[in-house]
Write a structure and sequence with these properties.
Elements (H helix, E strand, L loop, with lengths): L1 H39 L5 H21 L3 H8 L7 E7 L5 E7 L10 E3 L3 H6 L7 E6 L2 E12 L9
Parallel strand pairs: 2-3
Antiparallel strand pairs: 1-2, 1-5, 4-5
Helix pairs in contact: 1-2
Length: 161
Amino acid sequence: MRRLEGTIAMSHIHLSGTRQHLISQLTFFDEQFAIFLDTYFHDYNRARSEMDHLIRAYIEKLEAILGGDDEQLEDALTSIVLLGSSAKLKFAEDGLSETYTVVYPTEADLDQNRISFLSPIGKQLLLAQAEDELEIAGPSGNYQVKIEEIKYAYIGGFQGI
């Protein structure tokens, strides 16, 4: 029984840290939303409007997730792509799989498959759900993919804009 209690405590500690990280994302967007948009989208155009809408939808989803209990949080971490989630994609054309972690722009690293949520693929993955089928735009064309698995795998700390 003692071992089981330790496992439960570890899970609770992990979820508590995850909850704090998601709260810090909300805090960032609350405090820096306009500056963030101005930094990455100088002109008031369709791209800025679409990103404004995506970030607002993301904030709304985070608030809903954080309003739930630990079981709901744990479920969300494996069912929806958040900033810090790794999504395993299966490509319909060849059946191969690739995993991408969606991160802030300053944390993107293509060598590690860490993609900015501002990138074409990142925008499509953010808020997508497990088992979703998407057509993603890549450098050499569009690809049909299915999200096979989602894991919240946040790496590092946010570095700022």
